[in-house]
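Annotated sample (chain length 233).
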Amino acid sequence: MWEAKSGKEFLTLRGHTKGVTALAWNAASDQLASASEDGTARVWDMHTGDETAKWEAHKDGALDVAWHGGAIATAGRDGRARLWDAKGKQLADLGPAADAVLKVALTTDAKAVITGDWAGEVRTWPVGGGEGKKLALPVNPKPAAVAVVPVPTPPAVPVSAPATVKSASTADLDRKRAALKSIEDAAEKLKDEAARDPANAALAKAYLQLCEAALAMKAEVVAAEAALAKEGN
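Output written by the structure step:
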């Protein structure tokens, strides 16, 4: 365990005899559960670094662990998911799944366990027992649609002076500045929309694309300003 601000070592939790495969915090973040290829699950006190509980969770190796409320769920190579209390008392034995269970989670009400296995199946298992329900998954999911945000085209800037090199440069700079403002305005509006709908990945991606366009146009404005200043000298 490491201190986030300083990067200094805070605790070293020793006990597992094979690779540690997963970690899960309790709600208060003062206890940590770990799963390992040695088949055990363990609970650690984050104040002292002591191991407060240890139990054999999956004979062939424990691959994942999740902590929700007072329940700890584990998954293993034996194709099963199991539910425990923080002392290692078994509350439920769920499975078998189609293959080794790689991921496990609990529903928000802790009445069901969700598993993902090596065969690619996702199932929900009632904690009270019974067959797991296989969830239908798309075989070839379509890529998420990306929102297309039109960037307003700035109006042409009239040039009243004779078509000299300097006046042309000034007009070009004015056009670039107008384009930059249009892009920045569009990005600001899209930013507000993305904030109102944070789950919409398409909006977030479109906002980032506009930010990139704004940076590129800003670079052109700076270059045009530098060239104009050089001409004036």
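Annotation: The chain has two helices and twelve strands.
Annotation: The chain has two domains: 20-134, 165-232.
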